Amino acid sequence: MRKLISFVKVLGLKALLLFLVAVAAVMAVYLGYSAEFQQAAASPTPRPLQNTGFVSTPSEAPFASPSVEPIAQAEERVIKLKLPAAASEGGVLAELTVVARPAAVAGSPRNWIPVPDPANPIVNNDTQVSLSVAAEYARAFADGNASAFDLFYSLTAPSVAVGGRSAGAAAAIAGLALLEGKLRNDTLITGALEPDGRITRVGRILDKARAVKEAGYLLFLVPVGESIDSVSRTMQNQSCTTEYVGGTPFTSCRTQSVTVIESVNVSEETGVQLIEVANVSQAYEIMRVDLQ
User: Fold this and answer.
1) What pTM was estimated for this model as a whole?
2) How many alpha carbons lie under 13 Å from residue 118 in its C-beta half-sphere?
3) Pair 177, 143: CB distance under 8 Å
4) I need a labelling partner for 54 at 20 to 30 A (CA). Which of 30, 64, 137, 195 fits?
């Protein structure tokens, strides 16, 4: 019995000690958080935040804001120009539209080339490059503040796709007129454009001239050497032979188709006046309308 009472006393003492240790641990935790809170409240600098994946936006941009003045004075401009083109069925007229809008970023104008959409044909890579070269040429040589505008190019044509470089010269002239002037309405042009402004050969001038004439235009500008075009003609050659049988003549004839290539004067062939031009500057002087 005495041993049992002694064991209970020892057990009670151990329980009491464990209880006191637990109380001390709770007080230490409480005092630690309390001290941390007070230190944070007294500190003028907040604790660094953990990385959440977001980047704060500075209140001031790191670059100068675009100048409002030139954009406020600029206005949207639009020009449309027919493009003589060659299709499988002959010559057709596509249409180039160039829109100049106030630049989104002043001093950093951009050129927008068309991409496929339901309303426009697919523009092949060579045509896109040609339009880009034309836009840069127009910016380089236009009078006035060409850097105030973004240029938007679009094409419509009676075809699914548009390819080739023949729109280059027309696109450069349209860009120049859009930025500084106006074009006469009785003249069209075809020709590839080189970066230095030279207009080079494109081919199928006769087909294009027929489309120009049919649409009622009076003057057609073409690259040097292309007012004379080659045309294939099919001719029927007939040969006959006569034989006598018993004194009676019998004649038999044979017809053979022969295709020949001829050089023709396109102006005489179509009735539209052609002028050969070597570069954009020369063509623009013919097509522009002086606004002064």
Assistant:
1) 0.65
2) 0
3) no
4) 64
* Second-level CATH architecture of 68-229+266-289: 2-Layer Sandwich (3.30)
Q: What's the rounded Cα separation, in Å, for the pair 196 and 140?
A: 11
Q: 248-258 burial, b if ≥16 CB within 10 A, otherwise e?
A: eeeeeeeeeee
Give pLDDT tens digits along the chain (292 positions). 554 345 445 445 555 555 565 555 545 444 443 333 333 334 333 333 232 222 222 223 222 222 223 333 457 889 999 999 988 888 999 999 999 888 888 777 888 876 555 566 677 788 888 998 999 999 888 877 777 888 898 888 877 677 788 999 999 999 999 887 789 999 999 999 999 999 999 989 999 999 999 999 999 999 999 999 987 778 888 889 898 888 888 898 988 888 888 899 999 999 999 999 999 999 999 999 865 5
